[in-house]
Every structure is written in structure tokens, then in C-alpha cells.
Amino acid sequence: MLRKCRKAHAFIGVLCFAILMGASGCRERTSNIDNSNHTLVLGFAQLGAESSWRIGNTKSIIEAARDAGIQLMYTEAEQKQENQIKNIRSFIAYQVDIIAFAPIVETGWENVLQEAKEAGIPVILTDRKIEGNEDLYTCYIGSNFITEGEMAGEFLKKKFYYTKDEINIVELVGTLGSSPAEERSKGFRQSISDDEKFRIIESVCGDFMQSKGKEAMGKILKNHDNIDVLYCHNDSMALGAIAAIEEAGLVPGKDIVIISIDGEQEAIDALKAGRINCVIECSPMLGPKIMDTAKRIMNGEQVHKAIYIEDRVFTEWDDLSDLPPRGY
Ligand code: GYE
Q1: Mutation pick for ligand 1 pocket among 127, 151, 176, 211 (CB with most ligand atoms within 8 Å)
Q2: Is the Cβ atom of 236 under 6 angstroms away from ligand 1?
Q3: What are phi and psi of 20, to 5 degrees?
Q4: % of the chain surpassing 90 pLDDT
Q5: Does 171 fall in a domain?
Q6: 289 in the same domain as 278
Q7: For 243-256, b where at least 16 C-beta lie within 10 A, e where not — what string?
Q8: Is residue 126 domain-shared with residue 163, that is, in the same domain?
Q9: Residue 29 scores a pLDDT above 60
């Protein structure tokens, strides 16, 4: 049994940005924690603040930790893998009970996860997945991005069911090498591959950011005057692209059919206004599930390797007047 007594402020010195919530001070770490007298300490390594989705995700995690009585050590990596690795190492040095993190890309985590394993600290992957050795983490909690890409393709097939002409598609891709970007591309292609009229004429990275989405779409519009569809891997890029489309004198949602993923409030409002045609939901409200799963793991319970959150599809054909505020 490992006994330790450390002050929270000592840890803050180690990290570039950290929020500690809940009780601090002396604690005891065992594999089976008695929740009645132990405050579980969870280190969460967020990847950044690139989109409204991410901001909603962070809020959900902070609130859920507070509600669950879990002490949260929160770090943010400013979109850099090296920062995220450094932050996870700090959690290991502090000997937190459990680590959760949203891996910015799929590869390059073996060493740090091996270190966590050797230190006996379980790891939850949240939001994004990694490639390779499944023994290095306990479970994944998040959406199924292949399904999201497929749902985008299904909408397109319905929308253009009676059209025989070629449909020219532009894709704005999320962060290269990240699981949502890889899988949303893959699922979409799988879905439209059985109909030759669908042609992806450009696929450009917008890094999940509004500013980059606008910039990328602005350039694409200069090179093509035959775009029928814009498929965006997230709402932030779609909202940026919409601005570029309007600046080019075109009408978003009419001249160019727009499909986006996430379901943030601004995108739903654009859908209702006819400026987006379809939004695939990807819920960032993962906090309660993460906290519940962390408690189960620390109680020695078996959890599923992949815990998927169910996502919906909102289209221009739906009555969305009763849809409650999205919260992100
Ligand atoms: O779609 C996007 C964010 O990893 C699912 O990352 C997440 C994606 C989300 O920046 O808005």
C-alpha cells in the first residue's frame, strides 16, 4: 500500500496550467478504494480549446467531477501532443489514482502509457482513440466516428436520391492523424462508395478550427465553381466555411449543401435558418460517464473496453422547434 501526503500547490508548479478541484491533502492509494473515506484523484489531460465542442467537453468534465466528489487535476495542452505527454507524466509523478485524456492524435502514446501502467495507474481514453496496444489503457469513452461519417453519407444519398448528375463534394477534414478525422473520412467514403455519382473533388485539413475552415474554404472556392456539397468534420469549420461561401456571393445550404458534425447551438441555429442542411450529433457531455467509470474502475469492477455514446442526426426535414438548448 502506498501512502502519500502532498500539497496541491506543489503540483501546480509542475504544470503550465492546472485546475485542482475538491479536497486536497493526505490520501491513500490502493487498487480497491473505499469511497467512503477516500477522495478519488483524477488527472485529466485535455488537448486544447480548439472548438465550442471542446469547451463544452471541458465544462462537462469539471462539473461532473465536482458533482461526483472527485478531485480533478485538469491540464490543457494547447493542441500539442508533447504538452499532453508532459501533463500525463506530471500526473504519474503525483501518483493520481486514475488518468483520463483526450489523445490529440492516434499514435505516439506507447511510452507514456507504459509508464502509467508500470506506476499502476489506470488510464481512460476519452473522446478520441489511439492506435495499437489495447493493454495500455482500461477503456475508451466517446462517440463512434465511423458511424458519424456513415450518417453523413446516408443523408447525402437521401438528399440526392433523384439526381443522376455527378455530385461534387468538398471535405473539410479535422486534425490530421486524429481518430475523429480518420474515421469520419472513412465512414463517409464507405457510405457513398456504392454510388458513382458522388465524387470527392477536394479534401483539405481545417484542423477542427473555425478560422482554418474559413481560410481553407476561401481557397477552395477560388479553384472550383462546381461545388455541390460541403462535408465538414465539425461545426466550427462549417461555420467558418459558411462565412467564406457568403463572401464568395453564394448561398450556404442552397447553392452548396452543407453537412456538419457536432451539434453545437450555433450550427443547430444555422440548420434551422436553412444555412446548413444536416448536422450529425457528437455529444461532448462525457463528464458524468467518465466519473462513473473512474469510480467503477477504482472499485475493481470490470468495465467495457469501448463505451460508446449514442448520437442523433438533425436534418433540414426535421421539426426542431422543441429541441432544448444544446449547452455547447
Ligand atoms: O468533433 C471537434 C473537436 O474529438 C470529437 O474535436 C472531437 C472533435 C469534435 O475539436 O469539434
Answers
A1: 127
A2: yes
A3: -115, 130
A4: 88
A5: yes
A6: no
A7: bbbeeeeeebbeeb
A8: no
A9: no
Atom of ligand 1 nearest to the CA of 179: 4
pTM confidence score = 0.90
For residue 123, the number of C-alpha atoms closer than 13 Å in the C-beta half-sphere is 27
**C-alpha dihedral (56, 57, 63, 66), degrees to nearest 10:** -160
Report the separation in Å between the CA atom of 284 and the middle of ligand 1, taken as the mean of its atom positions: 8
The answer to whether residue 327 sits within a structural domain is no
Instruction: Give the model confidence (pLDDT) of 279-294 as tens digits.
Output: 999 999 999 999 999 9
Ligand 1 atom with minimal separation from the 53 CA: 11
DSSP output for 174-225: -STT-HHHHHHHHHHHHHHTT-TTEEEEEEEE-TT-HHHHHHHHHHHHHH-S
Q: Does 243 reside within a domain?
A: yes
Residue 325 is assigned to a structural domain of this protein = no
DSSP 141: E
pLDDT at 1 over 50: no
Query: What pLDDT is stored for residue 19 in this prediction?
Result: 53
Does residue 73 surpass a pLDDT of 60? yes
Q: Is the CB of 128 under 6 A from ligand 1?
A: yes
CATH code of the domain containing 249: 3.40.50.2300
Model confidence pLDDT, tens digit, residues 41-62: 999 999 999 999 999 999 999 9
